[in-house]
Amino acid sequence: MAAGDKLSSDGHNYTGEEIMAAGVQRWRELADRIATEAGFDLEDFAVVNAGRRRLVRVIVDADDGVTLDAAAEVSRRLSEAFDADEQAGDGMVGAAPYTLEVTSPGIGRPLTDRRHFRRATGRLITVTTTEDETLTARVLGVTDSGVDLLTGRHGTDPRHLSFAEIARAKVEVDFSGPSEAVTALLAADPRSAAFAARQSAIGTPDSTDEPEDER
User: Which residues, other chains included, contact 5 with Cβ-Cβ below 8 Å and sequence gap of 6+?
Assistant: First the structure.
């Protein structure tokens, strides 16, 4: 039996890779459950090697975003669950230390679900259509079938794209924010009015720090 392999109670000799894969899946399920209990969607879960350590990256999101305190609370609950799994002998990292990182989706995140576009309301995005057209636009709102955008030279031309027409989309860095004309259009639509009001009050989009838990 090779180092890292494990003989199960049913006599099957599991390889280190199989044990790791099972552990990743179990921790993903734990992360999904804890995120859901905290009122968030689990957007991504990944385990990557970082030298002698492993980085466990958990990305969560919600309609109202993720505050630093909320991310820290999710991180605390995940740490307790992962540590208990390790102590039970079922953990995926064994003796290797790990760093747990809980954060919200950042700039450049891909928009692949209806809820992603809804949460990007008011933000600047780049869209590539199935006809290979690329445009920069601002999300005015989301319908059952697609996305209402503001695009064009001045960012004030309305356009609707169905979800079926969108091949790829992602949030872009928006240093200057919307112009007064664009802000007025956002404020006039109930779906984006809250974003417009927030922009008028703070001037720049919110950001969320990333708490890290060293293990």
Answer: 13, 14, 15, 16, 19
| Span 17-50, pLDDT tens digits | 666 777 788 899 999 999 999 999 999 999 988 7
CA pseudo-torsion sign 72, 77, 82, 87: positive
Structural domains for the chain: 6-105 (3.30.300.70), 114-201 (2.30.30.100)
38 CB contacts (<8 Å, ≥6 apart)?
60, 70, 73, 74, 77
d(CA 24, CA 43): 15
Torsion sign across C-alpha atoms 99, 34, 68, 79: negative
Closest residue by Cα to residue 99 from 19, 21, 20, 210: 210
Q: How is the beta sheet containing 41-50 ordered, strand by strand?
A: 41-50, 53-61, 98-103, 212-214
Quick one: tokens of 11? Answer: 């006599």
- The length of the chain is 215
Distance CA 213, CA 95 (A): 17
Smallest CA-to-CA distance from 97 within 58, 51, 59, 34 is with: 51
Give this prediction's pTM.
Answer: 0.72
H or E element that contains 20 = helix 16-37
Cα–Cα nearest to 195, from 215, 177, 213: 177
